[in-house]
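Structure ticket #2291
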Amino acid sequence: MAFTGKYEFEADENYDDFVTKIGLPSDKIEMGRNCKIVTEVVQNGNDFTWTQHFPGGRTTTNTFTVGKEADMETMGGKKFKATVKMEDGKLVADFPNYRHTSEISGGKLVEISTASGAVYKRVSKKIA
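Resolution: structure written out below.
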């Protein structure tokens, strides 16, 4: 599955329950609610650069190769090491306190994060 593209937040489900379960502070929870995140993905084979642009100019970039350990950063800003895997066309990463999957479905970027039974789904439409 080709992930390369620029995607803009379209909709999400179960945000509050999920971010509470992973322990995000209330100021970050409020900032992230209905946040028009733009996700930019560059894929070259198994090599990825995954950048999220937040309103106000904050940017988070994770660069990784499928199957190899990489330095990563959570949506809350915590740094950690993870190995991203490809499972049935989905990118799968185990973050410190949640599991994150990403796939292209119907031309949209669909991301699902799961923590302690809370499932957060974010859908982004392709804009470039």
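Closing remark: The mean pLDDT is 92.
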